[in-house]
């Protein structure tokens, strides 16, 4: 169990930030703070507890771990390191749990003594501010990487669904095409067995090409009615399997009205074999088109991933179309958008100029804003609106949702590092801070306005 230790003036010089301080400063530190012993694995600070003291490692070490993170991930303090709450930090609550590593002794200085510390040793305060800045920079880099991995994890779940659908369609179409290709030769032999003249063959083969645009899909009831109608007509032409032939003919836009003039030019004994061969050929052609379209969908998804991650280009800045990054991010969120039945509106002004930027970083901004919007939306019936237009010398990008809105109090702090309204372990409070920093590095600004039922984040990016 943690317990206080007697003051020992010989241990403070082992702390790097305290080295070289005058003896009177060290004496004051021992009087204002205290030494505390922790057993191996003992909790030093709880996640969510008030940030109330500076911690300096005299012996042993500490391991800070975010809730829900694996034990191999975290932040370590070794002998001589300073952590916890530091002067001028805006940290209000400890964001993670801190555990003792081995037999540990810490020097702890309460927050209440920070004001006096500024008078006793401005030099030490400056050192601690330097430590805080270095630590914050390292933490932001780590969190930025973790946020990218977290976003990738969420996107990959939806992406697997997006890839699975066309892959499954290709598999089904390939199986059906194999069956169709086995049937077509037999139907061709049956057609030739009727000894049709050349002009008869020309009449039927002229229909064996799919139109550039297939008919608009019908409802299940409408499709059934039309198939029944065509099947009945085919049977009047001597086709005993009219119900089996009708679907593929209708898919190609060939109904009874379109086929009647063709039938008039065919000998009666040729019609059953001719329509059977035509149906089989059109089935194979349609399956081939389905495979091609599904393959293009997979290629599009792969291109979206490459555009989103920018992994096929160098990491420098270049002229880029903001809408391309927005669309690639939206495509990767397609599954999440469908799950919440989100009505998506893209309002892009025509002839938008390019901006000079780093695509991967800006895509991280779009990911953060879209992800936050999805989290804020109702379970179903969400509305997401993306607008891009030019205003003066800037390109203005807005992401708007119909969620519950953000209170005035939260809105005032939402861009502050570590500020989050999400439960512990679900948000670091750095996402919007990182997004704003990325926008600022591009010479722009990120702002938010909100009211019940409408929250809008707006990014201004300079042109050039």
TrEMBL record:
EC number: 2.7.13.3
Matching PANTHER family: HISTIDINE KINASE (PTHR43065:SF48), SENSOR HISTIDINE KINASE (PTHR43065)
InterPro entries attached to this UniProt entry: cNMP-bd_dom, cNMP-bd_dom_sf, HATPase_C_sf, HATPase_dom, His_kinase_dom, HisK_dim/P_dom, HisK_dim/P_sf, RmlC-like_jellyroll
Pfam families assigned: HATPase_c (PF02518)
Name by which UniProt lists this protein: histidine kinase
Reaction it catalyzes: ATP + protein L-histidine = ADP + protein N-phospho-L-histidine
Top-level taxon in the UniProt lineage: Bacteria
Keyword Lipoprotein: no
Record has ATP-binding as a keyword: yes
Enzyme class: transferase
All copies of domain Histidine kinase, residue ranges: 291-464
């Amino acid at each position: 169990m943690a317990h206080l230790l007697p003051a020992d003036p010989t241990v403070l010089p082992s702390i790097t930030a305290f080295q070289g301080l005058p003896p009177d400063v060290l004496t004051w530190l021992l009087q204002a703070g205290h030494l505390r012993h922790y057993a191996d694995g003992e909790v030093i600070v709880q996640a969510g507890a008030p940030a109330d003291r500076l911690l300096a490692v005299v012996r042993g070490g500490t391991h800070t771990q975010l809730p829900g993170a694996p034990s191999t991930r975290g932040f370590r303090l070794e002998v001589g390191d300073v952590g916890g709450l530091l002067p001028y930090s805006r940290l209000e609550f400890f964001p993670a749990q801190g555990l003792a590593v081995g037999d540990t002794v810490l020097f702890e200085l309460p927050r209440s003594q920070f004001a006096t510390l500024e008078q006793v040793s401005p030099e030490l305060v400056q050192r601690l501010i330097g430590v805080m800045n270095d630590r914050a920079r390292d933490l932001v880099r780590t969190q930025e990487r973790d946020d990218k991995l977290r976003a990738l994890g969420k996107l990959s779940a939806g992406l697997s669904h997006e890839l699975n659908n066309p892959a499954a369609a290709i598999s089904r179409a390939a199986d059906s095409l194999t069956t169709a290709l086995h049937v077509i030769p037999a139907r061709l032999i049956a057609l030739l067995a009727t000894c049709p003249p050349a002009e008869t063959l020309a009449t039927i083969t002229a229909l064996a090409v799919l139109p550039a645009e297939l008919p608009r899909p019908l409802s299940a009831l409408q499709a059934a009615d039309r198939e029944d109608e065509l099947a009945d007509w085919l049977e009047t032409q001597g086709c005993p399997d009219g119900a089996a032939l009708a679907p593929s003919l209708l898919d190609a836009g060939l109904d009874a009205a379109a086929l009647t003039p063709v039938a008039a030019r065919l000998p009666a004994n040729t019609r059953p074999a001719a329509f059977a061969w035509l149906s089989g050929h059109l089935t194979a052609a349609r399956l081939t088109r389905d495979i091609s379209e599904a393959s293009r969908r997979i290629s599009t998804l792969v291109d979206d991933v490459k555009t989103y991650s920018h992994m096929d280009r160098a990491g420098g800045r270049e002229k880029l179309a903001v809408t391309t990054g927005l669309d690639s991010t939206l495509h990767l969120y397609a599954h999440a958008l469908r799950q919440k039945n989100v009505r998506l509106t893209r309002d892009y002004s025509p002839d938008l100029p390019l901006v000079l930027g780093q695509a991967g970083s800006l895509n991280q901004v779009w990911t953060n804003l879209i992800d936050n919007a999805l989290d804020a939306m109702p379970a179903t019936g969400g509305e997401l609106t993306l607008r891009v237009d030019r205003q003066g010398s800037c390109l203005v990008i807005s992401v708007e949702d119909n969620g519950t809105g953000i209170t005035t109090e939260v809105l005032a702090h939402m861009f502050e590092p570590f500020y989050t309204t999400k439960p512990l372990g679900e948000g670091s409070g750095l996402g919007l801070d990182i997004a704003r920093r990325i926008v600022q590095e591009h010479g722009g600004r990120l702002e938010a306005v909100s009211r019940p039922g409408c929250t809008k984040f707006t990014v201004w990016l300079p042109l050039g």
